[in-house]
Amino acid sequence: MSSRTLPLLFINLGGEMLYILDQRLRAQNIPADKAKKVMNDIITTMFNKKFLEELFKPQELYSKKALRTVFDRLAHASIMRLNQASMDKLYDLMTMAFKYQVLLCPRPKDILLVSFNHMDSIKDFVKDTSSILSQVDETYRQLIEMYTPLSGGEFQLIRQSLLIFFQDMHIRVSIFLKDKVQNSNGRFVLPTNGPVPHGTQVPGLIRMFSCTGEEVKRLQFNNGGNYTAAIREGSFEIFGDRVTKLGTNMYSVSRPVETHMSGTSKNSAQHTKVNAAPNPLAKEELNLLAKLMGGLEVQKLGNADSGFRVNLFATDEEEEEALISRPDELSYGVINIQATKDQQASAELAKIMGEFTESRDQSPSASSKGDDLLAMMDGL
Predict the structure, then answer these.
(1) Could you tell me what percent of the chain has a pLDDT over 70?
(2) pTM of the full predicted structure?
(3) N or C: which end of the chain has fewer CB within 10 A?
């Protein structure tokens, strides 16, 4: 497992979450000012300086339950609320979309281009908010500094780590099923056509050389696909053409998106339960995140009218049915993050929270005390 996988996993899943929420906010005709506040608040939380400093330290991947809890807190970092069934569906869509992108990357290194596509879209979401833009630009710099020097072998290890993380997830997604890139069992269909990876040649030719290095024979064979020559390489700079479309917003054209448990997922209870079992390391992971992000507590609404609920299903009835029918082994329990009573840690939490509230006060979207991005943890 690569110790440099976590930042890419978090940024790409976060990007997919923002795509989905943006689509649902528009579909439910949420007022523009409230929708913008939700996106700005979530992105501000995602790119908090102290959190990113910890995120970019070499470390092992968090457990599935721990990561789900992080995104549950993140999705509720503003005035928007999601019921459990909608949160389950949101997380399913996020993970399956990024899994598909990782599988389709022509080269392991192209995972970084997918990340830049997500970053480019996130930057576009907050293009009118300079205080958040500076945080996003700093993350670009950290991505370039950490990942561009890596070898092809190191990127292959990152890709393997991501695929191991996703290997038991086979949720069927309507968009993928309609585009015939996913089978009814939830597994993806890999293409056997299109351009080959940058720096490679179209397969189909075997060349034989003598001991002196002279070419002596050529053999051609059927490669079993319809491949074309490689296209130019995408840009790994802050600005530039990424070339690949992987990681761009597939919800930019309004399409209904449904998720379904595949038979494989339902019948793999034994293996899934191993992953869903309580992990003693998970709380340590989340306690560290709590320390860095002031607990990622759900924002406390100032009054009953300031918040709103987003439904990822067509109707409330569908949402309730999805919650009832979801297999227990696929419902990641959310771990409660407990604030330590240690005075030194409490002082550090208060200091970090002060930085959060200070940054919010300087933001154009700052409002009443009840709309602070993160509420202070109880009992500090």
Answers:
(1) 70
(2) 0.76
(3) N
